[in-house]
Amino acid sequence: MVPKCYNNLTTLKFNFDMDAVNAAGLTTDELLAPMREYAQERGISEPEYGLFTLPTDRNSYCKITKWILYYIDEQPKFLDYFNSIISTINDEVEDCLPDLKEMLCYG
């Protein structure tokens, strides 16, 4: 699902693979908790469940991407629980999940 436009704000939308989440005995709230903690510390909002809006500067996007890469390195199975991680920048939409997996030689 592509997030609706938030006045051209940069967004990240986490779309879960519920079969994988349930099989692991986890909840989506547990998986989003580290992201929410990071977001709260940096003034990033979550206007819809699993959709985070970032400040408009590119530096914020780089920092959150760096954080995701760090977190995945610490929790290698993290990416297993998503069907997609959709990034929207200036109305350009991209699924980041394949590239994240590739960068980490995932799988």
**Approximate shape:** globular
Percent range of helical residues: 40-55%
How many DSSP E strands?
Answer: 5
Order of helices and strands, N to C? EHHEEHEEH
Mean pLDDT across all residues, rounded?
Answer: 83
Low-confidence stretches: none
Number of helices: 4
Give a quick account of the main beta sheet: strands, pairing sense, barrel closure.
5 strands, antiparallel
Q: What is the rounded Rg?
A: 13 Å
- Quaternary organisation: single chain
Structural class: alpha+beta
β-sheet strand percentage = 25-35%
Strand order of the largest sheet: 2-3-1-4-5
Q: Measure the end-to-end span.
A: 24 Å
Q: How would you describe the overall organization of this protein?
A:
This protein has a five-stranded antiparallel sheet with strand order 2-3-1-4-5. The longest helix is centred in the middle third of the chain and has 17 residues, at 58-74. The protein has helices at 18-23, 28-42, 58-74, 97-103, and strands spanning 10-16, 45-48, 51-54, 82-89, 92-95. With 107 residues, it is of the alpha+beta class.
